Amino acid sequence: FARHGYNGTTTKSVAAAAAISEALLFKHFPSKAALYAEILSDECEADPALMELLEREPSTATLVEVIRGMVEHFLHIADGPDQEEAQRLRLMATSHLDDGEFARLLYAKIETLIGAVFVASLERAVAAGDARPCTGDPLNLFWFAHHSLMTAALTRLPATPCLAYGKANDLERQLCEFLL
């Protein structure tokens, strides 16, 4: 995947690189999208800063840091030197427009990794009087933030951004204010 991107990688080439049969690969991963989603999930779990954040006690401060980290992550996708994250964002957008398989798999991984920390931190922020109680599923607030940021990041992917938000530092602060 690193060498050829998602579309240029076949399950046959992955199996060959791992010195296993394609059948064995499919025994563990029902599709190429499932394999790729698992790789991305493992990368997230290997990020020491994210793991440190997710191990914090749920609180208003943790909620703010989760949002700030999401904002920072999405705003810097277009700035990455290898464009690997930009390719992943494009893949997510394409998945939404196609069969949605990759997006559903990745959303499930993200929810498993971050969802409980977000919800617990939001509950603590409400209990502390730092946030208003929400109606409906509190996890939806996480997804609203995620999708808002994903869309903002998509506008910055082309060489000439689709929308000029202004200075990156100002945008980062404004997005945090809006989401919180």
Commentary on this structure:
- The chain is globular and about 55 Å long.
- It folds into two domains: 1-30; 31-179.
- The chain has helices spanning 11-17, 22-28, 32-45, 48-54, 60-75, 84-97, 101-127, 139-155, 168-179.
- Helix content is 67%, strand content 0%.
- It has 180 residues and is mainly α.
- The longest helix is centred in the middle third of the chain and has 27 residues, at 101-127.
Keywords, please?
single chain, 180 residues, mainly alpha
Secondary-structure blueprint of this entry?
Elements: H1 11-17, H2 22-28, H3 32-45, H4 48-54, H5 60-75, H6 84-97, H7 101-127, H8 139-155, H9 168-179
Helix pairs in contact: 1-2, 3-7, 5-7, 5-8, 5-9
Distance between the termini: 35 Å
Number of helices: 9
Q: What is the total tally of β strands?
A: 0
The structural class is mainly alpha
Low-confidence stretches: none
Strand proportion: under 5%
Concise synopsis of the structure shown:
By secondary structure, this protein is an all-alpha fold. The protein contains nine helices and no strands.
